[in-house]
Amino acid sequence: MNPRVVDKPRCHCAVFGVHGHPAAAQLAYYGLLAQQHRGQEGSGIVTCEFDTQEERHRFHVHKDFGLVDDIYRDSRLLTETLRGSMAMGHNRYSTAGAANNRANVQPLTVIYKDGNLGVSHNGNLTNFRSIRKRLQDQGTIFQTTSDTEVILHLIARSREKDQIEQVRDALAQIRGAFSLVLMTDTALIAARDHSGFRPLAIGRKGDTWFVASETVAFDIIDAEYVRDVEPGEIVVFRGDGRSPTTPVSLRIDGRPADPHFCIFEYIYFSRPDSRIFGHSVDKVRRKLGKNLARSSPVTPRDPADRPIVINVPDSSNTATMGFVQQTLKDGGNVRMEIGLIRSHYIGRTFIQPNQDVRENRVKTKFNTVRGVLQDKVVVIVDDSIVRGTTSKQLVQLVRQAGPKEVHFRVTAPPIQYPCHYGMDFPTPKELIANQCGGDVQKIGQELGVESLEYLSIADLLASVPQGNGERYCTACFNGEYPIAVDDKQTKEENEA
Ligand code: SF4
């Protein structure tokens, strides 16, 4: 099921973990609810309880397709079924593995020789096909088509005696993007790949510890953000419930951190009220808008006109404010208006893979405020253009309101390459930037605007936090993949 109407890259998953709280499942529910934007296909919570009668640990699992609120509508699931003081959760949008395969909904769990084991994964493994083939050749039977399952098998097959060492052994073999929450009978474990493509944060409230993709998950339960899990780090939360838990930090292996944070988290994926990679998304997004205003101000044909700048709700709200602030600071004569209204009640039952229908569907999501746009020079600020279908439709909608001119500004560079690290982009040939051979003027003509400008890669990099060793992945803009991609197309193949 595809709940999206607008043409944007899809974010792939949120993870959440709770250690040391008698109502762990309820906290996980809120943590997942706050991160619903990161995945809407399915969701799951797994808890760990010590069964005093049988004197063994039990995992309780509930997962399904759909939105968090729908899946846990019967609150007894959270209060009676999902018992235990440790929990892990996941919101899914599939990157690897068929979306309609129920077995792929995470967290994935197994019982192996050392007890229960579960995993929630945000990211995409670049060598999972070769690992999967090797394991299958050795007799391993896979239950899912998800890349995440190889992690469980590698842990279960490890020759290490200690469970944490088994996890380290397994994670040292996988490549690509992984921000993980793992759960054993006695520990909650957070781990992040050496590049740290996807975010992973640690939170705390009293003696309860949390792990989440985004810090908005901590805000909703009044937990405080402590720090990020570092690239290449494993953090183990283990306690007996009688004394406070002290997290233990380990490295996956001897390889040093090699940061390549996903810059698209700042552009579009993360919520502006989150801290991502240790920094406020709101601040970065404003800076994106400011730098775009500096590099690409709008000049109306008639200097007497005062352009109005409109956001594309909700994803470009913050960047649009930055754009307007900077334009005014530079002496420009613009004002911000709410010219596009987004319906928040659009059903997620609309499944429209067909391009014609998708274009029409945009109208059900957005409408214009005619009085705001009529006879005005209008500047639309958006965060990205993918296929161009939504942008084209938005421009048509705005045109129907009778503006004098329509200009378009994008707070990201043109998207030309696929993501192999956990985001779902259309095929390269579907991307409008590729269809127009990277010619921005031609893309502008396709959209039907007086002018179109993108943020440059240099200005993008100038907008994100630097100085603490941060480095970023920009592969979807320039095709420079920071780590090898075993199984998929490379830039050269895309260009061939
Ligand atoms: S290719 Fe783009 S979306 Fe994927 S990790 Fe790199 S910056 Fe993020």
Structure characterization notes:
- This protein has 496 residues and is an alpha+beta fold.
- It is 29% helix and 25% strand.
- Strand 7 (176-184) and strand 8 (188-192) form a beta hairpin.
- The longest helix is centred in the middle third of the chain and has 15 residues, at 281-295.
- The chain is elongated and about 80 Å long.
- Residues 197, 262-264, 419, 421, 423, 473-476 line the site of iron/sulfur cluster.
Question: How would you summarize this macromolecular structure in one to three sentences?
Answer:
This protein has 496 residues and is of the alpha+beta class. 29% of the residues lie in helices and 25% in strands. It has 18 helices and 24 strands.
State the main characteristics.
disordered C terminus; disordered N terminus; 24 strands; binds iron/sulfur cluster; 18 helices; 7-stranded antiparallel beta sheet; 25% strand; alpha+beta; 6-stranded antiparallel beta sheet; single chain; 496 residues; 29% helix
| Poorly predicted runs | 1-5, 348-353, 489-496
Structural class: alpha+beta
Describe the largest sheet: 7 strands, antiparallel
Ligand catalogue:
iron/sulfur cluster
Number of helices: 18
Mean of residue pLDDT values? 91
